[in-house]
Amino acid sequence: MARGRDARSFDEDDVPTRANPRGTRPRSKQRPAHENAVDGMVIAVDRGRYLVLAGDVEVTAMKARELGRKSIVVGDRVGVVGEVSDAPDALVRIVRLDDRATVLRRTADDNDPHERVIVANADQLVVVSALADPEPSYGLIDRCVVAALAAGIEPLLCLTKSDLASADPVIERYEPLSVPAIVTHRGGPLDELREHLAGQVSVLVGHSGVGKSTLINALVPSADRATGRVSAIGKGRHTSSSAVALALPGGGGWVVDTPGVRSFGLAHVTPDDLLWAFPDLEDGATQCRPGCEHTLDYPDCHLDAWVAQGHSTPVRLAAFRQLLVSR
Ligand code: ZN
Question: How many whole angstroms from 281 Cα to the centroid of ligand 1?
Fold first, then answer.
């Protein structure tokens, strides 16, 4: 069954014609103030300092004043000027912020009054969930899937500890959404996961105890050293909540660890944002009454008739509605 649009086929030409998620519309590019800027990718951020991979050198950079208050996050593609070298006191400035292909964000909540962009330009959101000890949190998985779909990012389930419980119930639950799942067991091989991560920028999220750190250490043997370099840019105390991009060995993609992200505030996600990932339902919803939010609280929602006409399936509509109410 067709899942939503393939995030990898998402390009900028697509954007203006879609009812696209708020904020994922690429921002206009900064006028290049420095034509000799070196292209780089932001791999960590800590209190106003940025670790940028520029060419094959990691440099600590500050944001140029001309970029104003615009936030720069992990995954951002930037241009830097200055002494791009390994020298410890090299002074490098970020002078350009490129358009973002995707924006993974979370809404303000009680702990943080600001809506935040967590990661830019991610291709994939890997939801790591144990099958037991702790048991899967469907609420969390649903919310991660919503965050990914609304951002135009592919969701992927990584189900750990299959030596403790069967993965079947979880796989069946997400099958109508065509969310792929990879099953691992403790101490087992990770080849299938590596295949899915190759060449992608993948954000990993998961509760503590699900085995996310174990996975990251297995995938990126130098993860601890990389995190150490991040501590260095922030003058010693790495804030554990910030995201860090870790290069997969062999130059084949990135995993972004998000130690502080246990869930996503999703108040910024509208029904339209989510419909965008359900092309089989999207056209039907255009015939709904204005203001219809398509849940069971809206008994005259046109989507029931739309499905009865054969444009989609009841199980797919139910899965869409399940995600809507999980926001
Ligand atoms: Zn409706």
Answer: 10
Q: What is the DSSP string of 149-196?
A: HHHT-EEEEEEE-TTTS-SHHHHHHHGGGT--EEE--TT---HHHHHH
Q: How far is the CA of 190 from the centre of ligand 1 (A)?
A: 42
Q: What is the pLDDT of residue 134?
A: 94
Q: Note the CATH architecture for domain 103-257.
A: 3-Layer(aba) Sandwich (3.40)
User: Which two three-digit tokens encode residue 220?
Assistant: 């990126």
Q: Please compute Rg for the chain using Cα positions.
A: 21
Residue 20 has what pLDDT? Answer: 42
Distance CA 77, CA 118 (A): 14
Would you say 102 and 121 are in contact if contact means Cβ atoms under 8 Å apart?
A: yes
Q: How far is the CA of 318 from the centre of ligand 1 (A)?
A: 13
Run of H or E including 147: helix 138-151
Distance 116 CA to ligand 1 centre (A): 29
* Cβ-Cβ contacts under 8 Å for 324 (sequence gap 6 or more): 271, 274, 293, 294, 295
What is the Å distance from ligand 1's center to 154 Cα?
25
Q: What distance lies between CA 224 and its chain's CA centroid? A: 22
Q: Per-10-residue mean pLDDT for the chain, 327 residues long?
A: 40 37 48 76 90 90 90 95 73 93 82 80 96 93 91 95 96 93 94 95 91 92 75 58 86 86 77 91 96 94 97 95 90
CA 316 to centroid of chain Cα atoms: 23
pTM value is: 0.83
Would you kindly state where each structural domain of the chain is located, as residue ranges?
38-97, 103-257, 271-326
Top-level class of domain 38-97: mainly beta
